[in-house]
Amino acid sequence: MATIVDVEIDPTALIAALGRHARIAAGALGRLSTADKRRGLIAMARAIRGAEAAILAANAIDMANAEKAGLSSAMLDRLNLTPDRVAAMADGVATIATLKDPVGETIDETVPANGIHLSRVRVPIGVIGIIYESRPNVTADAAALCIGSGNAVILRGGSEAVESNRAIHAALVEGLKDAGLPAEAVQLVPTTDRAAVGAMLAGEGVIDMVVPRGGKGLVARVQAEARVPVLAHLDGINHVFVHASADPAMAETIVVNAKMRRTGICGAMETLLIDRDYPRAADLIAALAATGCEVRGDDAARALAPDIAPAAKSDWDTEYLEAIASVAIVDGLDGALAHIARHGSHHTDAIVAEDATVAERFLGEVDSAIVLWNASTQFADGGEFGLGAEIGIATGRLHARGPVALEGLTTYKWIGRGTGQVRA
Amino acid sequence: MATIVDVEIDPTALIAALGRHARIAAGALGRLSTADKRRGLIAMARAIRGAEAAILAANAIDMANAEKAGLSSAMLDRLNLTPDRVAAMADGVATIATLKDPVGETIDETVPANGIHLSRVRVPIGVIGIIYESRPNVTADAAALCIGSGNAVILRGGSEAVESNRAIHAALVEGLKDAGLPAEAVQLVPTTDRAAVGAMLAGEGVIDMVVPRGGKGLVARVQAEARVPVLAHLDGINHVFVHASADPAMAETIVVNAKMRRTGICGAMETLLIDRDYPRAADLIAALAATGCEVRGDDAARALAPDIAPAAKSDWDTEYLEAIASVAIVDGLDGALAHIARHGSHHTDAIVAEDATVAERFLGEVDSAIVLWNASTQFADGGEFGLGAEIGIATGRLHARGPVALEGLTTYKWIGRGTGQVRA
């Protein structure tokens, strides 16, 4: 198998050329029926299954190179494909074919005084750029979500997964062709030159929206450089606030789950806020510590639980993504709201309370993409939200927020049907 | 009356300080009931009426300075306020109080398998920046739309309207205070230093969305420099396509209205596309020319109407905003679609046709924020669309498109109400 060759090509010209093809494909995709898109997705899933051997062989090259380069075991695990993982990738693509197609949906209709029948109808955004790191399954996931929502996609994967991505992309294109869909609907940037990422981020008019998928470094770079809209979250500094009225058993279960179920996901709790009037604070901190979590508290928390470490000022602004939590004692709901307003990252915050008035104020006033009452922050996930999948979780304030799947990859147009109206 | 003094202050620090106050005010506004916001708007309208003398006196200073500076009569007219115009400004603010409040609206609800009751609820965006030119009524219009949708606003008007804007802003603040709303909800940048605009455009985390209101130069600068999302349109290169099946009387009425009702608005037709098979093309061109419109045609159009001027290549990409139109003869629907895809600006495009199949293809395939069938492009307006007002018309692909009023100034959050769920 040939390894990729970085030919000398101006990255702006390269991305512009990919974009021109993608724009034409997007025009065709936007006109497809739901049945056509589903046929395409099913063919893409079938092609991945059929290319299992090629994909695994390509992945073996990436794995060998990655081992030589001394990548961490966590990175090697993210990169590694197995027959099961290839099957799961194909299943994921096929699943998108079962989701509700948002394109063509009428958002609302009105007939204003001028008598023109107006409707707002969902349409695809156009050309989506995906910039991602080592997980090769993103190649299939992201492509499927874009095709399912009628968008063309330009994929730019990590250099360590280049062979795997090429093999998966080849299968996806084969599936598109089998179904009679334009092959240019899913394009893979054919160079690992980092300047190509810059060209994608600068691609106004070429790429309509960029979705970064990967670590904080990648997301921060994309947000800093992008001249096109970005759908992303940088941090998940998520809080669970245990109110005085909380059921102690529920509080313990939710706090332990929110922190410890999986510590590395963006929906994990990082800071526990306990109401000064909550009577079982010491027990709650002890229960969290007993799971193996390192707990770092403020003075009031350490007065209740002297064994925990002191929290530094920076702890309140830290996304640990590991078995560490900060704990602060706050003055009721207002103390919790003030802490979250100051330190939160607008991702996911939860309250545990039996008092519905307090809970509703929390849900209303916490300015985050996802706010939860009596449920673990670990539910922040498109699958758990009934979306069937997700292209990512967004903490920006415009367009789509929280878990984003097919609908978030659409926009709308106004359609007016008249009978000869002219404006007075 | 004192004229504004440009004190030496770092524009970034200035905008950050305004933004901090605005962010706090936005928090308070986000929690207001519809009734409270309406009370605020009505008080703002009353305060404008009460300040009529002060506003007119301030405007007289701006007008005198503008005349001294030799501004064009069109610019002087935009700047000029009269008792009628002040009353219209107050009425406009009061009208916003009658519109449906989008904040708090449940977009959809679902209870996925985990049993958490999920709803998506509209919330204000936060802090909106408005950058505008000579019309002082934008100060009141934009502030009212932002308050009506629960957003704080930072206003940056043109230097030629500085005294008028200050007087209107003072009235708006008085109204806010009268109604018990935070005065910092509507802020006016207290300097005409152009660097303040740059600081607003760079204000990530300070300003959530910028709306430029003014000429193409302003919009282009804002789009080029902004690091925050921009809601705007640059061009309105709008087309009317007259299909072979069009009713000739309707075609003539719509084409003349679309071009000539008001030539200077963004919804005006700039290019007329006539189907080669439309039998009355010569009459249509003659009718348009007879209104005093300068018509510039391609060779095929000139073969039908030899008196018209030849169109240059640049004509197809020109927004005249005056009594000039370009005319091209195209090969049916596909020719029209290709022309619009190449030269359109995604604003408003219309088809005149009796053939519903052709019309529906046009509505589906033209990639513009507004597409119309048998109606004049001059209807591109929030008031005509039943929105009651508009903050602007957007041709971007994300968030809101077409005429944008209160709903386009909101986003949503996910609210989950559980009963102790933790994730498996």
From TrEMBL, chains A, B:
GO biological process: L-proline biosynthetic process
Compartmental location: Cytoplasm
Classification via InterPro entries: Ald_DH/histidinol_DH, Ald_DH_C, Ald_DH_N, Aldehyde_DH_dom, G-glutamylP_reductase_CS, Glu-5-SA_DH, GPR_dom
Pathway(s) where this gene product acts: Amino-acid biosynthesis; L-proline biosynthesis; L-glutamate 5-semialdehyde from L-glutamate: step 2/2
SUPFAM superfamilies referenced in this protein's UniProt entry, alphabetically: ALDH-like
Protein EC: 1.2.1.41
Gene Ontology CC entries for this record: cytoplasm
Catalytic activity annotation: L-glutamate 5-semialdehyde + phosphate + NADP(+) = L-glutamyl 5-phosphate + NADPH + H(+)
Main location: cytoplasm
Pfam families documented for this protein: Aldedh
Superkingdom of the organism of origin: Bacteria
GO molecular function: glutamate-5-semialdehyde dehydrogenase activity; NADP binding
Segments forming domain Aldehyde dehydrogenase: 21-300
Keyword tags: Amino-acid biosynthesis, Cytoplasm, NADP, Oxidoreductase, Proline biosynthesis
The protein's enzyme class: oxidoreductase
Function: Catalyzes the NADPH-dependent reduction of L-glutamate 5-phosphate into L-glutamate 5-semialdehyde and phosphate. The product spontaneously undergoes cyclization to form 1-pyrroline-5-carboxylate.
Family note: Belongs to the gamma-glutamyl phosphate reductase family.
Protein name: Gamma-glutamyl phosphate reductase
Source organism phylogeny: Bacteria, Pseudomonadati, Pseudomonadota, Alphaproteobacteria, Sphingomonadales
